[in-house]
Write a structure and sequence with these properties.
Largest sheet: 2 strands, antiparallel
Structural class: mainly alpha
Helix content: 55-70%
Number of helices: 18
Number of domains: 2
Shape: globular
Strand order of the largest sheet: 1-2
Strand content: 5-15%
Order of helices and strands: HHHEEHHHHEEHHHHHHHEEHHHH
Oligomer: single chain
Number of strands: 6
Radius of gyration: 22 Å
């Protein structure tokens, strides 16, 4: 598990303990500030200064029966779609221990069924999504505690009943809980836990809550502001892109390298629904009228960024699928043939793409992803900083991920990675970093 120790042990332990203790209350404070404090960090800070810890406890909603029911129905529905909807058989990358996970690629179908069902329940008066918004604090509170228990289950499962040989302990209970024990935990043979937490619960909730905020604004004001329409449209386009490309996501660091613990699973069960959707959460009570021209400019710029982000991933996926026998921007791709040794002592080769988007920088796809987040946040304009927290967080997350990925590849490929870095010298931003 040394691949996760990108920093010194002391820095790692302090960071882990800080995140374990600060992330849960931050989620509640974010919700409270967006919904009850006019989006003003200063207003919330003054309240906490005057009331201290007692004040935090007073604004922390208790998980209610309604909140637990909403979560349970949603989780059961998504789990059923994951298990029973038809889908193409897809193999993930071979793990360090030599295991190759098999998935059923039915994310796009699940996404379509989820949105149609949710909107249908509202349209026919069976269930009003406004109920979700009105119980949002209680839902987040329930998710915080429920997901901590779930992560404890993953920790125990990793010790007593691992799903594969891709499981192990660092020897430190806190690190094991935070980073996780298992790479590919499953319940039974077919229910992949990380696909559920990351994709079907976390990413799906992003779309569901985006629609919820839109419907809440409509039912409150009798109309949906163009700022909310731009925000919701861009978020839905982004999540649609994600599920269209879901099988490619199973090859990324989140699934193929990061184990199932607090960092990934609690993050996707709690942090994604609360933080990633927060610009829309703010806009519910702060409708901004952009005007048709500005709204269209932002919408087009955001869609362009999402497309470039998708095309980066598509380009690399096609390059790998064809073993380099494809065209990249109309030409034969430039590449490096890198050999490496597996943990079992086998020598294997990988192709490293050095042209197209991947010739601009080693992680260029993070640039349009950060810009897309900016474009679906900028409809909130600049009265308050807090709607931009997700953009700042995403930038820090992706820059850290790029460093961890570079460190892992340097360790894996050795001299070939050095050669790759000479051909593609910039890590993320071409010409700058």
């Amino acid at each position: 598990m040394g691949e996760n120790m990108a920093h010194s042990p002391l820095v790692t332990y302090v960071s882990v303990l800080s995140l374990l203790s600060l992330c849960p209350p931050f989620v509640i404070l974010l919700w409270y500030t967006m919904v009850h404090a006019d989006g003003s960090v200063l207003q919330t800070a003054n309240y906490l200064r005057d009331h201290g810890i007692q004040g935090l406890l007073q604004i922390w909603p208790k998980p209610t029966t309604t909140a637990w029911k909403i979560i349970a129905f949603y989780a059961a529905f998504e789990a059923a779609l994951q298990l029973f909807l038809p889908g193409k058989r897809v193999e993930g990358p071979t793990s360090p221990a030599g295991n190759r996970p098999v998935y059923k690629a039915n994310g796009l179908q699940a996404f379509a069924v989820t949105l149609v069902t949710y909107l249908g329940l509202w349209w026919f008066g069976i269930f009003n999504p406004v109920i979700v918004y009105d119980h949002l604090g209680e839902i987040f509170s329930a998710l915080i505690f429920g997901s901590l228990i779930f992560c404890l289950f993953l920790y125990i499962k990793g010790h007593v009943a691992p799903s594969s040989t891709d499981s192990g302990s660092s020897g430190n209970i806190i690190i094991d809980f935070y980073w996780g024990m298992e790479l590919y935990p499953r319940i039974g043979r077919n229910f992949d836990i990380k696909v559920f937490t990351n994709c079907r619960f976390g990413m799906m909730s992003w779309a569901v809550l985006s629609l919820t905020y839109c419907i809440k604004q409509y039912e409150t004001y009798g109309r949906v502001a163009d700022s909310m329409l731009v925000n919701t449209t861009l978020m839905l386009v982004y999540v649609t892109k994600f599920f269209w490309w879901e099988a490619g996501y199973w090859n990324t660091m989140d699934i193929a390298h990061d184990r199932a613990g607090f960092y990934i699973c609690w993050g996707c069960l709690v942090w994604v629904p609360s933080v990633y959707t927060s610009p829309g959460m703010y806009l519910v009570n702060h409708p901004v009228n952009l005007g048709v021209q500005l709204a269209l400019y932002i919408l087009v710029a955001g869609i362009l960024c999402i497309y470039i982000n998708y095309d980066c991933d598509r380009q690399r996926q096609e390059f790998r699928r064809t073993n380099g026998k494809c065209l990249v921007w109309g030409k034969a791709p430039s590449k490096i043939v890198a050999s490496y040794t597996t943990t079992s002592g086998e020598t294997k080769t990988s192709l490293l793409l050095t042209s197209g988007w991947w010739g601009l920088s080693r992680h260029f796809h993070y640039v349009p992803e950060i810009l897309a987040a900016f474009f679906w946040t900028v409809p909130a304009l600049f009265s308050h900083f807090l709607p931009y927290f997700y953009v700042v967080f995403l930038t820090i997350l992706l820059f850290d991920r790029a460093k961890r990925d570079d460190d892992r590849c340097r360790s894996k490929y050795g001299k070939y990675w050095k050669l790759y870095c000479e051909k593609v010298p910039y890590r993320i931003v071409p010409g700058l970093y």
